[in-house]
């Protein structure tokens, strides 16, 4: 999906994550740029907290106004794997789906909760390979 905001665009993407074993979504706010500009946008990652999704920050914060002013791209990944149907993943608001701890699970039952690896390794690589206008360094 895509929506215009503060001269740029909020775009939501979905991809299959080999790290997590499921589809994941993330948002990017692209500030405006001239078509002749070769400048890459520096990236700021926003990691939402408990009970959130990739949409909370993008929809509610208004941070795009500041990102527009400074020419920064905002990246907001989802907070956890979804749709894996692990027993107990939705029984508590502070554990499992939507928990947003961005750590790698150590117990076999939660083997797909490898959010540290996803955020630190997989997502930046995916952004670099697919969005040449972003400076993920």
UniProtKB/TrEMBL annotation:
<keyword id="KW-0719">Serine esterase</keyword>
<dbReference type="InterPro" id="IPR029058">
    <property type="entry name" value="AB_hydrolase_fold"/>
</dbReference>
<dbReference type="InterPro" id="IPR014186">
    <property type="entry name" value="S-formylglutathione_hydrol"/>
</dbReference>
<comment type="similarity">
    <text>Belongs to the esterase D family.</text>
</comment>
<dbReference type="Pfam" id="PF00756">
    <property type="entry name" value="Esterase"/>
</dbReference>
<dbReference type="GO" id="GO:0005829">
    <property type="term" value="C:cytosol"/>
</dbReference>
<dbReference type="GO" id="GO:0052689">
    <property type="term" value="F:carboxylic ester hydrolase activity"/>
</dbReference>
<keyword id="KW-0378">Hydrolase</keyword>
<dbReference type="InterPro" id="IPR000801">
    <property type="entry name" value="Esterase-like"/>
</dbReference>
<dbReference type="GO" id="GO:0046294">
    <property type="term" value="P:formaldehyde catabolic process"/>
</dbReference>
<dbReference type="GO" id="GO:0018738">
    <property type="term" value="F:S-formylglutathione hydrolase activity"/>
</dbReference>
<protein>
    <recommendedName>
        <fullName>S-formylglutathione hydrolase</fullName>
        <ecNumber>3.1.2.12</ecNumber>
    </recommendedName>
</protein>
């Amino acid at each position: 999906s895509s929506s215009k905001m503060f001269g740029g665009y909020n775009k939501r993407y979905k991809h299959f994550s080999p790290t997590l074993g499921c589809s994941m979504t993330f948002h990017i706010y692209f500030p405006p740029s001239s078509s002749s500009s070769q400048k890459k946008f520096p990236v700021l990652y926003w990691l939402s907290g408990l009970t959130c999704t990739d949409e909370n920050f993008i929809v509610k914060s208004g941070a795009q106004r500041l990102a527009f002013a400074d020419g920064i791209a905002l990246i907001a990944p989802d907070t956890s794997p979804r749709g894996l149907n692990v027993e107990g993943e939705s029984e508590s608001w502070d554990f499992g789906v939507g928990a947003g701890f961005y750590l790698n699970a150590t117990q076999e039952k939660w083997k797909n909760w490898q959010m540290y690896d996803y955020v630190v390794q997989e997502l930046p690589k995916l952004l670099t390979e697919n969005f040449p206008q972003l400076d993920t360094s």
